[in-house]
Amino acid sequence: MLVALDAQAQAPGKERAAAIEVDSVSKRYRLGEETLAALEDISLVVGEGEFVSLIGPSGCGKSTLLNVVAGLVPATLGRVRVLGNDMTGPSRRIGMMFQSPVLLPWRTNLDNVLLPVEVFGLDRRKSATRARELLQLVGLAAFADRYPMELSGGMQQRVAICRMLLCDPAILLMDEPFAALDEMSREFMNVELLRIWEALRSTVLFVTHNIGEAVFLSDRVIVMSARPGRIARVVRVELPRPRTKATLSSDTFFHQVTAVRKAFDETADRIAS
Amino acid sequence: MKPQTGSLPDAPGRDAARLGRRDVVVALVCGALLLVGWEAVCRAGFVSRLVLPAPSAIAVELWSAVREIVVGGPMRTHALTTIYEILAGFGLGVGLGFVLGVLISEIPAARRVAMPWLIALNAAPKIALAPLLLVWFGFGIGSKIVMAALIAFFPLLINVVSGLSQVEEAKLKLMRSLAASRTMTLAKVKLPDAMPAIFAGLKTAIVLAVVGAVVGEFVGAESGLGYVIKQSEFQLDVAQTFAVIVLLSIIGIAFFYAIEFIERRALFWTRPHP
């Protein structure tokens, strides 16, 4: 069988140390008289160096879960441990990326990449070399001293990748970073992201609503269901690494996507019935 | 994709806002026609020159005023007094407005305490305070500076508060994800992001500072262009009154465009990029 479902897929596998531990986390919002359960009893473990995607219909709480892991939103119940420490707030060991690049238009691309260094109060000059290396890595070395508005959407997201990576975070949390891009750019960014990640092997939790993207990038795909947000299925992706553009047209990739789609549809059916 | 560096047509919105050469010609012709008509009405003797002097008479007065300012004379002293009052009042009002605006935006308790008072004060006709200010701060430039500061203060305060409250949520989330302190977020994101609103406030404030200084001088002064207007009124020298009004307008416009010039330079990222 190409896809290992659930029971075996729950664990990070290969004796990895846990980087992210989410333990019975629930998140409820009060809406006047009613309470809205955004997340209901979520438990998951992401191993060190593992690439895990969260996928599900809109409103399933996948972004909320990411924000809870990031320490941006407190959990109502349960607890989150990152690198062995309880999360009490945002951590410098986490790098984040959002659906929009969120670059500051009054800063050059290089200065945008250097923002975390300034916020952390570290030596700007020492990091400038690293920032230029990163821009080189994503093919934007020539644009270091230009402004974000001179770049296309995909290029801006590559600057955002550099900013996320600058201080070598152990954990990357990415919230639909390529959802606003057209199909071609998204595919290109997926390949780029994996190329960069192969060299770093940081732990990634990646939110998306694109099944192909989730399969191509991940070691495991976590399928969530909506109202309340729950983990419905966990699918282990058995695609050899390093994965390249060629992977996208392989039969194996196609079968994996079909398997995840099936899991996805089953969840959707269960909600509908 | 390389950034375009060649000369490309501007975005449509900007095109519509910018005056074309033809528009300028039409505007100038209309203005000239108005002046010619005005002159004709006065020369024909339809109105007394004590009510409406001819443009030519105003031009003569304006010329002598400008000459006095250039070569030195009473008019230079008056103009410099008023310019000083405008700038000092503007600086004071805008400085206070900025500091208070930031405090109100950043400290919820300050907002709760100060906001009702500020709204009430803003609604009050501040010009009506001019006689009182004269009593408190005297016949000198002090009362004029305070008057100018008082009415320049509110537009800046309000624009700082609204500018800081409209910062894009995504940018704030980015700073939160970096565990940035409040002062760091204010300095690196909120203030630069609020700059367009703050500059809009500065432009309103400078125009109002001119009004404040002149009203202050009307109420009681020993020098200044507002004082000259009142003197010429007493002497039934209406042409000089008009000339000084033109002079004050020129001063106001000059300050306004000086701020706009700085804005264009400083806020380069708000310009639409080709």
Walk me through the structure.
Chain A is of the alpha/beta class and 273 residues long. Chain A folds into 2 domains: 4-93 and 171-272, Rossmann fold; 101-168, no CATH class. Helices cover 34% and strands 26% of the residues of chain A. Chain A has helices spanning 62-70, 109-113, 115-120, 124-137, 153-165, 183-200, 211-217, 251-272; strands at residues 4-5, 18-31, 34-47, 51-55, 77-82, 85-86, 94-97, 171-175, 203-208, 220-225, 230-236. In chain A, the strands form 2 sheets. In chain A, strands 1-11-10-4-9-8-7 form a 7-stranded mixed sheet, with helices on both faces. In chain A, a hairpin with a 2-residue loop joins strand 5 and strand 6 (85-86). The radius of gyration of chain A is 19 Å and the shape is globular. The two termini of chain A are 29 Å apart. Chain B is mainly α and 274 residues long. Residues 1-14 of chain B have low confidence and may be disordered. Chain B contains 11 helices and no strands. Chain B folds into 2 domains: 19-48; 55-270, MetI-like (MetI-like fold), CATH 1.10.3720.10. Chain B has helices spanning 12-17, 21-43, 55-71, 74-106, 108-123, 130-137, 141-165, 169-177, 182-219, 225-234, 238-266.
